[in-house]
Amino acid sequence: MSILEKIIAQKELEVKELKKQNFEQGSNHKKIGTIFPNRDSMHIIAEIKRSSPSKGAIDMAVDPITQAKQYEKHGASAISVLTDNTFFNGSMDDLRTVRSAVDLPLLCKDFMIDPIQIDLAKSAGANIILLIVAALPESKLHELYRYAKQQGLEVLVEVHNELEMEIAVNLGADLIGVNNRNLKTFEVTLDATERLAPMVESLSSTLISESGIRSREDVKRVAQAGAKVILVGETLMRSNDLAETFSDIRVPLPSKGADTNAR
Fold first, then answer.
1. Interatomic CA distance for residues 16 and 114, integer angstroms
2. Annotated catalytic sites, by residue?
C-alpha cells in the first residue's frame, strides 16, 4: 500500500467520526478578495508544516500564530496550514488559530474525500481547500469541487502527471497545482512543473508549483515554465532568516512573450 493509500484509508475513518459530531459552520470564515492578482513577481503560499511522511520532523515546536504573522510580515500572498494529524502532526486548531492571527487567504492543506471535511475547513477559517486528483475518483472530484465552490471557497486542484492535468483542465479549475512530489513514491522533481505547465498555457487557470522549492534558481525554473505561484513549506519552516528567504524566492515573473521554455 502506498503512502497516499494509507492516508486515504485513515481519512475514511476520520470522516466516519466527523459525521458523528456537530460543529458550528461558517463561524470563523473571512471573505477574501482576489487571491492571486496579476503582478510582476512570484506569489508565495507559505506553509506551516510540523512534519511529513517523507521528511519526518521538520519543526515540531512551531507556534502557528508566530509563524503565520512572520509569513504575513514578509509578504506571503497566502498561508497553507497542514491540518492532517496522523501523518503531518497538524490540526484544525492550527487553522483556527492562524485565522485569528492574520488576514491573508488560508489554504486548508488536507486530503479531502467528503463534503463534511469542506464544511469543517470553512468553519475553521479556510478560504481555499485542496482536492488531489490522485486521491479521488473523477466523479467524487467533480462533486467536491462543485460543493466547495457553492460554499464560497476557492479550490486548489492538485495534479502530478498528464492524465491528472487533463482531468483538472476538464474540470475548469481556476487554481491548478503541480505537485513536484509523487504522492505514491514521494520522490520530488521540478520536471513535473516543466512538463505539465504547457497544458494550461492557453487557459485562464493560475498555475501553482508545489514541493521541492529550495532556492532562487528553483523558483526561476518554475517561473520560466509558467508558474505564477509557488507553495513552499520545508524551506520556510527550516529557514533561520525568513526575511532573506522570502526575498530570495520572490523572483520576477517572465514578461509576456518571453520564451517560457527557456532555462
1. 10
2. 47, 49, 109, 158, 179, 210-211
Residue 235 near residue 47 (C-beta atoms within 8 A): no
Please give the sequence-ordered ranges of beta strands (E in DSSP) within 113-187, or none if there are none: 128-132, 154-159, 175-179
Q: For the chain, which ranges sit under pLDDT 70? A: 23-29, 256-263
Give the Cα separation of 157 and 155 in Å (integer).
6
pTM, entire model: 0.92
Q: Which residues does residue 177 pair with via DSSP β-bridges, in sequence order?
A: 158, 208
- Domains assigned to the chain: 39-249 (3.20.20.70)
Residue with cell 497516499: 4
Interval 158-191: pLDDT, tens: 999 999 999 999 999 999 999 998 877 778 889 9
